[in-house]
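Re: export button greyed out
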Amino acid sequence: MSQKKIHEDQKYIVGLVENNAFIIQAIYDKFAPKVINYIKQNSGDVSSAQDIIQETIITIYNQAIEKDLKLTCPFDAYFFLLCKRKWLNQLKKTGNKEVTINEEVLSKDDDAQELAFETSLFEQQHSLYKDMFEKLGQACKDLLKATFKIKSMEEVAKSLGVTYAYARKKKSLCIGQLTKWIQESPTFKNLKS
Amino acid sequence: MQEQDYILFEDYLSGALDAVEIVAFENRLQNDLEFNKAYKTYVHASKFLETHLENEEKQKAFKANLESVSSKYFAKEESSKIRFKGINPWYYSLAAAAILVIGFFFAQQFSNPVYGDYANYGTISLTVRGQQSEVLSKAETAFNSRNYKEAETYFSQALKTDTNNMELQLYRAVSLVELNNYNEADALFDDIIQTPSVYKNKAIWYLALSKLKQGDDAASINVLKTLPKDSEDFKEAQKLINKLK
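Workaround output, generated via the alternate export path:
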């Protein structure tokens, strides 16, 4: 990301990272009604809006935690764009529903468009990596969890009752397997990372 | 890629290669495109695992908190919808007329706004962090059941080890207002207002309510006027100012 000025709405991102119920509540109070209206006007109902909003907030949270997300536009525009795209994608998947795009509520903010695009790339990448990790065998999962939580490979080996050399080799091969699956997946080929 | 290549990636990343091996490795990175691509993906996957697995617990706590806020918010949405469903429009005018009559009566009788009209703190949910969790959850329960005396004690206790936690300071100040301990409450609000924290505007709004409870309308108006336009309580504040004038 280029050196753009951070928007004052970064406070919402900080609040999410801190798991601050006050801020989460404020996000719902301020920004949810617009999303609910949009989804209701476009073949959806309140319960689909609830899911879309929740998933979007989790994506923003993950990006903030894992990639140090910096907001360069108003939260309102960014959040609405993300929810809207997520909803349109879902409609596309279920097919044959008519979608009316209300130009008035579309954001014309370039920064918001750019940032929302980055976030959706992050989301696709994140869910690909997560799915592939889930596909690994239990032994690999346990070893990797121990590796990244305990940090010291000697201690990891001790806790799993294997030799240090074996733990190291196994770690490379487990991440290697993950690497292979990620490279082979069609989603990865579409994502130019 | 062969198993041997992945082992090599890990050795390179963990600094286990000697100088000659490093040169050979970096040469291969430059000249072998497939090797280079696999290495980059390996690094990404490692980074992903590191942040994802490290933050697993935090993420779980966040999701739980989010789900609770979301279901409360949407339960409110649903109930407001049900309440207005299927009412004959004719009743609206009857209701409006009745409200006008009653409203007029009340406006004549009690035109002054009181603290109780605005003191709506909702329920709070505090992040659980390590050793403090027990004190925090007691504070939360006490505050949510409006037992402010107990809540204040627990907030003070938690603040001993987490002195700069603005969220706890804010709720402690609110509890103090409820306990009519205004001097200490107002001083705390003032402290929070001086900081750039996300609780700044809430502190301004609650300070104004504290002044209202103390019967100092002029002070309340002055505080309300400092509330920025984009703050959550701005509209409510403008209404209150008009009523107090």
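Chain A has two domains: 10-113, 136-190. The button fix ships in the next patch.
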